[in-house]
Every structure is written in structure tokens, then in C-alpha cells.
Amino acid sequence: MNIKRSLILALAFVMVILAAECKKNETQPEAAAQEFKWQVDQFADLKILRYKVPGFAGLSLAKKELVYYLGEAALCGRDIIFAQNYKHNLTIRKTLDAVVEGYKGDRTAPQWKKFMIYTKRVWFSNGIHHHYSTDKFIPEFSSEYFAALVKECEGVEFPLTQDQTLDDLITFLKPVIFDPAADAKKVSQEATKDLITNSAVNFYQGVTQPEVEKYYKNITDEDDPTPISYGLNSRVVKKDGKVVEEIAFLNGLYGPAVEKIIYWLEKAAGVAENDQQQQVIKKLIEYYQTGDLEKFDEYNILWVNDVETRVDFVNGFIEVYSDPMGRKGSWESLVNFKDLEATKRTDTISANAQWFEDNSPVDPRFKRKEVKGVTAKVITAAMLGGDAYPSTPIGINLPNATWIRKTHGSKSVTLENITYAYNQASLGSGFGKEFSVSKEVLERAKKYGAQAGNLHTDLHEVLGHGSGQLLPGVSPEALKNYHSPVEEARADLFALYYMMDDKMVELGLLPTLNAARASYDTNIRNGLMTQLTRIQPGKTIEQAHMRSRALVSQWVYEKGKPENVISKEIKDGKTFFVINDYQKLRQLYGELLVEVQRITSEGDYEAARKLVETYGVQVDQELHKEVLERYSKLNLAPYGGFINPVYTPVIKDGKIVDIKIEYPADYVKQMLRYSKDYSFL
Ligand code: ZN
């Protein structure tokens, strides 16, 4: 079902790193960086940035209203993602919110600062597990201090259940928050253990992996050419000894939040740009009213065909990365409008999609004879919600259902104002200087890094995920737990292979292939080295996109050794990887693409396992230590998230005459306001 699903959460990471390397993007005005504070907060391994919404003021009133209503719908699902991530997240968050609002004691104490850091981390991760590693993080203050905080509050309400006292709540939360062993991992990847009982994510309660597998086997029709996305919008629980699904919809699971989402979607439908878009929104409302996944498919088909409108959105249970079984969608929303100028770039790529497919090095049996409906656009994000807030992808390719993609195509988007914000925020971070082997490499990154990065995202999303096909009879789930890293590697390799093709210059997508070199420099360095800044000492690589980058880079490094394609060099005690032959490296990317496409098309689980386990999981401990040391000296945060703008209707004589946009800079305020205004569960 999810062969080409690809919210490229972690491509955002490539960009963070890439952005950090492009000290100054010469094509963008320097002045903006001075007037506007892009980074407004930093704590733990996180930084809080702001993004601008250029072009909003120039939209028509109806389009502004549309953005506003869809934006409200995006915020109304905030509680859902907290609840999905872990069953106690809402209780924890409401308790933390109440303390931040109502604590009457000393707010200058070091313990209080630690409390605030913990609280901000919970807000950021939409729960108590790290948004990226999915490990539970533990406060640096004591449980006694926590108890004292809760008791010294005034004028606030705590989330007490019936008959529960404040002491009961404290006793209940103590192990939940402070015991590292209790629900330690949101999403377990350990294939040797029960993936469900070892995952804290709230998609399953009281059921085991074999029970869930059996349940879905029983209700799935393998011969159905147009299967619904079984289990996408539900939680599997045991009731009276029976395995059943609780469906999320208006009168079901998460109903009160769904009701508010529907309310704003109805407003949005009233100002839709055209009939087609109105149908899209109305179909989504029907789906939320019923929980019927067939309606969700109908909605997706309408949505993917709606290519004319300027304003667009994602709203629903979408990506399945947080489910160890790869079935359940995390709730997310993104409101956006098309960047007309930058979309000319993706139009060029889309228009040539068949050429890229025909000329790729993969076995003709695995190629698509007809590349269908790759629509791509560059967008301006206007509101982030649910799982896409505050940490957001920089590229999205939807819908996820394989048969819909095959029959109706998919929409691929690049969030350029987000990558721009990353770039601006990283000006002068020192990252590029530290990790570039030479001045030449650094200068090249400065000159072409942002451009090559955007193009890489487009090629990955528009072409990579959309390329290739499975042999008849091969199940999209054949690669199981290795599906995601292999799929990401496939898309990345497609992008990397073509990045160095003369066609890029011919089509005007790159000014010179020297820019492609900048992309190769970054990808090799990231895959072999700098992405390790995101991993704790002693741990292995788990996240799918990170595994993908590691396996691609390690593989070409190993295979290129006889011809010294990439060499490892030590300068002043610091390690660098130097690309000696860019053309040979391109060939190696091509060779691996051939193999990864074969694995995918044939559903070769054993080969997938070997490839990922050999090249994508293990970490060179020595190198890791060195990278962490070098990185820590720069005092940077490896993960970024964004504060949303605020949209306020301007009302005259009872009618909306304009929508005003503002860019607040206080993360705590935004979180408290969201908790106050958008808490429905
Ligand atoms: Zn991807």
C-alpha cells in the first residue's frame, strides 16, 4: 500500500545540514536576514525558527480566507497527534501547561529552567518521545521538584479523572515521566521482538503483533485491485477478548477534535476557488463524518486531480512512519499556496518525466512504460499542523495508496519558504567551515548548495518515488521493516544519478554540473559522517531516511575503494571524505540504483535485509565520537521546528474584509495559546 509514500521528513535533515553549509545564498537578499529574526529559541537538540509567507498579502480576499479556514482546521487536530503518539501524552501536556500557567514559586531557579526545557521538548515532539529518534526523553529535574511544582499552582485546572486527587495524578505521572524503562520507545524497529508490544505509540492497545497481523490478514482481500488503506484511521484494541478497531471519525475516536476540523473545513468549502476544490473539501468532510476509508480514497482521487487551484492543503491521517507495522496514519495538516515562479522548475522536471524513466539504468522490466501524472509544484507553506508541526517536511508526495498513484498519479510538492528559512537561520553557523575538506568545496557549497539542494528534493520527490514498478504478484509490503529505508534510497539514488547528467544543464535546471558536485559533496559527507550528529553515542542508525543515506554512501564508498573514488583523509586530526572522481561516483550511484530497484520490483526481502544491515545501520564508533566533538563545539541544534504565523480576520460591518498575517516570535506563548484555543480531547 505504501510503496511510494514519501513524506520526506528527513530530507528536511539533509537540508538542515545543507543549509547549515550554505553560509550565504547569493541569490537571496541579505537584507531580509537582518530585519527578520529567523531563529528565536534553542534548547536541548532543538532550535525554533520562523518562516515567512511571501505572497500572502497579494492573494485575493477569498484565497486569504481559504488559507485562514484551512489553517484553523490544521490547528484543531493538535490533540490528536499527542494522543496518537502515546496514550498518556495529553495528560502529561495538560499538566505541564497548567504548571507553566499557574506556578507561583520561583521562576528563576535552575530547576525551573530545566522544567521549561522539558516542557518545550514535549511540545516540540507532540509527546514525551523524541520526534526523530522516538526514544523517551527524561527530565533533568527530580520527581520531587515536579510534585512541588504541581502543588504550588493557582488558578489553573489539572487533567484529573473522576475521583482523582492532585496527589493521585502526581503518583500516576511519576513513572510515566521519570522511569526511563517505562514505554521507552515510541516505535520499535527490533524485528526480533514483538514490534507492537515494544512500541509505546498509541495505535494499538492490549494486542500483540501476531494478533494484529492475523486481524488484517482476515479482513484484507489480496486480489482487490483497489484496496482501501486498511487500518489507516484506527486504533486496534481488545474488547471482551476480541481484536477490534476503533475508528477515528465524528462520532468515534477523537470525535470532539474531528468535529472542530469539520467545522472549519465547511467554512473553507464555502470559499473554495472552484467546484473541483469544493468537491475535494466536501469529500474530506464526508470521510471525517463517517470514518469510511473508501471515501478517503475518493477524496484522494479528487485531490490529486485538483491541480488548477492556487491554495492547497493536506489534512488527515496520512503518513505511517510512526506505526511499526506501517499501517496507521499520524494526523497532520499543511496549508499552502503555489509559488508560481519557482513552480516553473518542477514543471520542467514533470514535463520530462518519461525521458528520465526511459533513460535510467534500471532493468527495463522494472520501468514504467508510461509515467502517469507526475504533478509537481513549489509551494509556500502557510500553516503547519499535527505531525507536521513544528518539525516539518520540506517535500511531500501524496497520496500514499499505491493503486491511486498508479491510476491517478500523485502530487509532489517542495516547501521552498521552509528551506529558505533554514538557509537564512544558518548563516554564519560555522558548520560548513568545520566539515568542508577544502575552501573549494566550501565555496562551491555556498554558491550552489541551496539550488542543488532544492533540485535534489524535486528529483527525489517528483521522479524518484514515482519511478519504477513492481513485478506482477509482488506485494508492496514484501520488504516489511526494510521497506522504508530501501524506498528512500531508491528515490535518493534516482535523484543523485540524474543530478550529474548533462540533461540538468540542458533543461536549465542547473547552471553548470559544478553545482551537482556540491550536491555529491554534501550527500557523501552527510551519509558517511555529519548525519551522525543526530545519534547518541553508542547507538545505531534507526530512522529510515538516515539508514537510506548511510547505506547509499557506505555502499559507494566501499565499492569505489579499488579505484579510490572516495578517499578518507585526516587533516589536523580531523576526518574528511574526499570525492576524487565525480563521474565514477555517478556510475556507482547508478549501479546501486539498479540493484535497489531490482530488490523493490522483485520484493527481495533477504537482499533488502542484507543491504540495510550491512551498510545502513552500524556506526563507526571512533568517527562518531569525533563528529560529535567537532559538532558540539559549534553549539548548534541538529533539529529545527517552526513557529506558525498568526492569521487574524479584519472585520468591518460584520464582514471579513481582509486577513492580517503576523509572525510571532515567542514559542512558549504559541504553545500555551494552542493549548487554550485548540484543545478538544
Ligand atoms: Zn522520500
Task: Summarize the entry for a quick read.
Helices cover 47% and strands 14% of the residues. It is an alpha+beta fold and 681 residues long.
Content-based structural category: alpha+beta
Largest sheet: 5 strands, mixed
Shape designation: globular
Distance between the termini: 30 Å
Helix content: 40-55%
Helical run tally? 26
Low-pLDDT residue spans:
1-33
Mean pLDDT across the residues is: 92
* DSSP strand content: 5-15%
Strand order of the largest sheet: 6-7-8-10-9
Number of strands: 15
CA-atom Rg in angstroms: 24 Å
Bound molecules: zinc ion
Task: Indicate the topology.
Elements (H helix, E strand, L loop, with lengths): L10 H11 L8 H6 L3 E5 L2 E5 L10 H15 L2 H8 L3 H14 L7 H16 L17 H9 L14 H13 L25 E2 L3 H11 L14 E6 L2 E6 L7 H16 L4 H16 L2 H13 L5 E9 L10 E9 L4 H9 L1 H7 L14 E13 L8 E4 L3 H7 L1 E6 H10 L5 H5 L3 H26 L18 H17 L2 H5 L7 H15 L15 H16 L6 E6 L2 E6 L2 H21 L2 H11 L5 H14 L4 E5 L2 E7 L2 E8 L4 H11 L4
Parallel strand pairs: 2-13, 3-4, 8-10
Antiparallel strand pairs: 1-2, 4-5, 6-7, 7-8, 9-10, 11-12, 14-15
Helix pairs in contact: 1-16, 1-18, 3-10, 5-6, 7-8, 10-11, 11-12, 13-18, 18-19, 18-21, 19-22, 19-23, 21-22, 22-23, 22-24
